[in-house]
């Protein structure tokens, strides 16, 4: 189960760009990750107040990242945390890195007065259920 991983989850910084880009490219299925677009988006996300971009590291290695947001809602009477992307390097999965990043995001969301944390996934339902998440909605999308 968990956790033979010994590392750190921390806020991403500019020097993490290449490691996060590699993880994002490996995770991407619907879209190809453009290096130029990634670089611009990464810098914007680092500067935003309502964003939590976390990276799991062990020494100089970037093993995973989590991108999440805080946004206001009516249904929850205020802010909620939304996890947009979670990626763990394939060979490091199953040792507690994803759990550690989710815990760190939940802590951040709690400090942001979020009423809940939510996400959409097709590939990792058992992982999130093991963390106490419940299935709540169906995800729809429309490509523009």
Q: Could you describe the 3D structure shown?
A:
This protein is of the alpha+beta class and 144 residues long. It has one domain: 3-Layer(aba) Sandwich (Aminopeptidase), CATH 3.40.630.30. The protein is 31% helix and 27% strand. The protein has helices at residues 17-27, 35-47, 97-111, 125-130; strands spanning 8-11, 51-58, 61-73, 78-88, 117-119. The chain starts with 7 loop residues before the first strand and ends in a 14-residue tail after the last helix.
Keywords:
Aminopeptidase; globular; 144 residues; alpha+beta
How would the blueprint of this fold be written?
Elements: E1 8-11, H1 17-27, H2 35-47, E2 51-58, E3 61-73, E4 78-88, H3 97-111, E5 117-119, H4 125-130
Parallel strand pairs: 4-5
Antiparallel strand pairs: 1-2, 2-3, 3-4
Give a brief rundown of this model.
The protein has 144 residues and is of the alpha+beta class. The chain is 31% helix and 27% strand. It has one domain (8-130): Gcn5-related N-acetyltransferase (GNAT) (Aminopeptidase, 3-Layer(aba) Sandwich).
| Overall outline | globular
- CATH H-level superfamily: Gcn5-related N-acetyltransferase (GNAT)
CATH class: Alpha Beta
Number of domains: 1
Q: Architecture, according to CATH?
A: 3-Layer(aba) Sandwich
Q: What is the residue-mean pLDDT, rounded to a whole number?
A: 91
